[in-house]
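Per your request, structure below.
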């Protein structure tokens, strides 16, 4: 539950001043940070910086504008595709705007006259040109205003990107390193750009512990809190806040003594981590084996091929889930076969022969790719996403499958289809895979002819019919993030109903148990790549329920392995039997925690 606790009632305990606000949200990624706020509230236009420049600097600014203009023309040129006439017409019109013999000289004139940075000149000129067109009241001209904004919006992005290098970006704003990002919500594609941006924390008003932003933050070890309602209203850019990711708390305007208390907690946590380094190093090398000799396989979830290296360093025995859609989210157009092949091959080669399970495009809902943006859905979570999209866009799907097959020649790459709801979808997907194999065979292109194919079990219908689906695949992977969402009819990003989102709900556990049983009967490997697999408490239960393969964020591999190595499978089985007789998720969690405590 999210509660706003007034300073007064906590003051004597934490030593806060009266302005202090402690807001509670949902823990999304552990760690404590104290730092200045970078507030993002969709105010893209207001975020363009404006500053004065010298006449000499004006030459530099003009050079930058020229380069950004050229880059934008090249980008638009690449997007023009003769197969889509309407789209090409629009892009060609935009290309003309970027060479407009009147407008471009006007930008230059204004730059040298006003002597302010080129971004603010461009913003001003575009705004006034668009306003003039709209003022005509003519429909055709008003629509051209949108084109001007779009074409020069691209130039603006290129200008800002050239200025800020690899900095992270949300909306049109670049996130300054060392800050804590505070926003209502951000898209997974934006989160992706934060990875190397140097931000130290994330606090969102919306979202839950299994939203994709939370998953990425955990994977990059950036402390994060989700579902902190009211936070945006309380902070401005630069305000100092304390963010405690483990407790899911954000403290606004903290008093000096609270800051030093949290800072020293953060320091002692990192000292603890350092003192644990030797233990961790030994754990990384050790097998994930229980006291009574039961062997578990722990693999990692990644979003981009670069993370495969982190996974290996953390001791993961392969990649259990590569979310390939992030490659699609990272660019405005669909990545071609060569780009995809290079990315998948890189991941496979980084893992030195260990299995790499690559999930085919799971686009839609919160992970909308450009090709889906024109189709507005009433219920995106129940709509045109993942395998449903791919089966409609066979060309996109086949391109990805060809790239995956080609990369399979370089290691143990396995293909996994997301969001399978019934046998028909699986059979259709396998058909497209066969077509792609046929094309490559005919062209003598090498690929692994024994490629393993699996599916995600993340829709209750698939869990219920797992016995039928198992007959057609080499493996099944339980995606609890979505399975819980669809079983409980609760949006995994909606903080207000987050209390219903619980992996220990008996309905969820029964579906998990059915899937594991179907796999055992059909002699098909079952794994889990949902977040439930990465929590030592739930992983203990899953072991007892018969699961042997787990995949999680790289950072969670050692904590789970530590649990596996200190318990016996016999105890896990007994605990699972008792847990499955209970009906309250809270009681199940408590029972498991108590059993695990006996090992301390
Ligand atoms: C899941 O649903 O459990 C899963 C692993 O996929 P994603 O989190 O990407 O939806
Ligand atoms: Mg899913």
């Amino acid at each position: 539950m999210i509660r706003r606790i007034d300073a007064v009632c906590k003051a004597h305990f934490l030593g806060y001043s009266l302005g202090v606000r402690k807001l509670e949200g949902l823990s999304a990624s552990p760690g404590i940070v104290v730092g200045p706020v970078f507030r993002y509230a969709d105010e893209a236009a207001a975020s363009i910086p404006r500053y004065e420049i010298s006449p000499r600097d004006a030459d530099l600014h003009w050079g930058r504008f020229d380069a950004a203009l050229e880059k934008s023309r090249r980008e638009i040129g690449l997007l023009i595709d003769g197969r889509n006439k309407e789209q090409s017409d629009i892009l060609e019109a935009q290309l003309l705007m970027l060479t407009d013999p009147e407008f471009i000289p006007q930008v230059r004139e204004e730059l040298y006259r006003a002597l302010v940075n080129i971004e603010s000149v461009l913003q001003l000129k575009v705004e006034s040109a668009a306003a003039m067109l709209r003022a005509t009241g003519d429909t055709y001209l008003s629509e051209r205003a949108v084109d001007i904004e779009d074409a020069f919006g691209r130039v603006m992005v290129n200008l800002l990107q050239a200025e800020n290098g690899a900095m992270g970006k949300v909306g049109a704003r670049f996130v300054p390193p060392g800050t804590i990002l505070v926003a209502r919500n951000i898209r997974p594609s934006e989160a992706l750009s934060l990875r190397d941006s140097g931000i130290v924390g994330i606090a969102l008003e919306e979202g839950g512990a299994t939203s994709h932003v939370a998953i990425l933050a955990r994977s990059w070890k950036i402390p994060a809190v989700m579902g902190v309602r009211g936070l945006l209203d309380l902070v401005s850019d630069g305000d100092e806040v304390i963010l405690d990711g483990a407790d899911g708390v954000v403290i606004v305007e903290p008093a000096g003594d609270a800051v030093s208390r949290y800072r020293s907690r953060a320091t002692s946590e990192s000292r603890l981590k350092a003192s644990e380094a030797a233990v961790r190093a030994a754990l990384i090398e050790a097998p994930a084996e229980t006291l009574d000799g039961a062997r578990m396989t722990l693999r990692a979830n990644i979003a981009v091929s670069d993370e495969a290296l982190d996974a290996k360093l953390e001791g993961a025995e392969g990649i259990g889930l590569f979310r390939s859609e992030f490659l699609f989210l990272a660019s405005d157009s669909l990545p071609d076969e060569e780009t995809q092949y290079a990315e998948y091959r890189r991941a496979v080669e980084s893992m030195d022969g260990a299995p790499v399970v690559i999930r085919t495009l799971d686009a839609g809902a919160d992970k909308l790719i450009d090709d889906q943006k024109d189709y507005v859905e009433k219920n995106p979570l129940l709509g045109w996403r993942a395998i449903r999209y791919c089966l409609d866009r066979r060309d996109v799907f086949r391109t990805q499958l060809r790239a995956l097959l080609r990369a399979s020649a370089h290691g143990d790459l396995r293909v996994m289809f997301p969001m399978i709801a019934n046998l028909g979808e699986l059979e259709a997907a396998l058909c497209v895979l066969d077509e792609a194999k046929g094309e490559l065979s005919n062209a003598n292109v090498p690929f692994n002819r024994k490629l393993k194919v699996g599916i995600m079990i993340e829709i209750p219908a698939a869990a219920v019919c797992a016995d039928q689906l198992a007959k057609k695949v080499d493996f099944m992977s339980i995606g609890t993030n979505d399975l819980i969402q669809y079983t409980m009819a609760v949006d995994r990003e909606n903080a207000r109903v987050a209390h219903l989102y619980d992996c220990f709900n008996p309905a969820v556990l029964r579906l998990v148990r059915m899937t594991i049983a179907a796999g055992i009967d059909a002699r098909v490997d079952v794994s889990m790549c949902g977040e439930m697999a990465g929590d030592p408490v739930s992983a203990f239960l899953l072991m007892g329920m018969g699961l042997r393969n787990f995949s999680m964020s790289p950072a969670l591999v050692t904590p789970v392995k530590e649990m596996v190595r200190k318990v016996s499978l016999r105890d896990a089985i007994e605990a699972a039997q008792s847990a499955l007789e209970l009906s309250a998720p809270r009681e199940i969690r408590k029972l498991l925690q108590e059993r695990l405590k006996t090992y301390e």
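The radius of gyration is 26 Å.

Regards,
D.
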